[in-house]
Design brief:
Number of helices: 4
Helix content: 55-70%
Shape: elongated
Mean pLDDT: 89
């Protein structure tokens, strides 16, 4: 779509411009948490997300 402004496109799809322009801050801690979560889910296959979350939060 050539010539359409971001503001108009956001209004058309009911998305805020702030949401469109959001850029997450990625850091090494997120990668460590993801690795821990993958290891935990491999070891504890019967645990759901909530239990894994609580476990990692309290470790």
């Amino acid at each position: 779509m050539k010539g359409v402004s971001i503001a108009l496109a956001c209004r058309a799809f009911d998305v805020s411009e702030t949401c469109y322009r959001y850029s997450p801050n990625l850091d090494d801690e997120n990668e460590q948490i993801a690795d821990l979560l993958l290891g935990l889910t491999a070891a504890k296959k019967s645990w759901g997300f909530g239990l894994c979350f609580l476990y990692l939060r309290n470790v």
